[in-house]
Amino acid sequence: MFFDKVRVVASPTKPDAPVIKIFISLFSLNINNLLFSKVYLLY
Q: TM spans, by residue (predicted)?
């Protein structure tokens, strides 16, 4: 939900901004990796 809001906010101002999309994708991947590592440490 948070990333959808960020995309909605970022898309009208700069419709073709690959840097923002790459930053959001990397940020989400980092969060997913952290969550996966925490779950992996729990088991």
A: 20-41
